[in-house]
Amino acid sequence: MVSPTDKRVDIPIENGFVGMVDRDAFDEWLRARAAGSGAQRQIGSFERLTRDDDGVSVVHYQARERPGDAASVPRSVRARCVIGADGARSAVARQAIAGAERNPCVFAYHEIVRAPPAKPVGYDGSRCDVYYRGSLSPDFYGWVFPHGDTLSIGTGSADKASHCAPPSAACAPIRACRTHRRCAARGHRSR
């Protein structure tokens, strides 16, 4: 952890583990695993959630043949259990949970970059670094999370009007690294 005055502290967690995944690969792995266990895989966009008279959920969606297809067909499916894994501002949650739209969020920006071949002083590829600096975020924090050959570098703010600079721009050793992906996202406030 790095304070606004650049004081650094390591917080070792005995037998600790921070699990991080590449969502592109992990989500597909989950889909394949579900299909392998008997789930019928459908591709589409969620529209709404209703309930039958017996209380069972009905998920209404626009079905597509392949990801990215423009043409779609309205479909629905009954489900005893619905998992809304569609993000912090989940359309599923807004329909299933009263007040879900008022859940406070942090607006985040992060980049996935190739780890630099020459590691900067103080860099530890097995450690998540969290920075509390107003130059990165007025009310939240910035981070560097290693993912093997890549790093997730990000920052966030609960203030939508706050400008969060691209994180790699603030770190000279990272500026020259190849960017794999830039992501603007909303996530649940973690305070």
Explain how this protein is built:
The protein has 191 residues and is mainly β. The chain folds into two domains: 43-102, no CATH class; 105-188, D-Amino Acid Oxidase, subunit A, domain 2 (D-Amino Acid Oxidase, Chain A, domain 2, 2-Layer Sandwich). 13% of the residues lie in helices and 32% in strands. It has three helices and eight strands, in the order αβββαββββαβ. It has helices at residues 23-36, 91-96, 172-175; strands spanning 43-51, 57-64, 73-79, 105-114, 129-131, 142-147, 150-157, 179-188. The strands form two sheets. It has a five-stranded antiparallel sheet with strand order 5-6-7-4-8, with no helix packed on it. The longest helix is centred in the first third of the chain and has 14 residues, at 23-36. It is elongated, with a radius of gyration of 20 Å.
Question: In what order do the strands lie side by side in the largest sheet?
Answer: 5-6-7-4-8
Number of domains: 2
Between the first and last Cα atoms, what is the distance in angstroms? 16 Å
Q: What radius of gyration results from the CA coordinates?
A: 20 Å
CATH class of the largest domain: Alpha Beta
Q: Compute the number of strand runs.
A: 8
CATH architecture of the largest domain: 2-Layer Sandwich
Question: Would you identify the regions where 5 or more consecutive residues have pLDDT less than 50?
Answer: none
Helix/strand structural class = mainly beta
CATH superfamily of the largest domain: D-Amino Acid Oxidase, subunit A, domain 2
Largest sheet: 5 strands, antiparallel
CATH fold node name of the largest domain = D-Amino Acid Oxidase, Chain A, domain 2
> How large a portion of the residues is in β-strands, by DSSP E?
25-35%
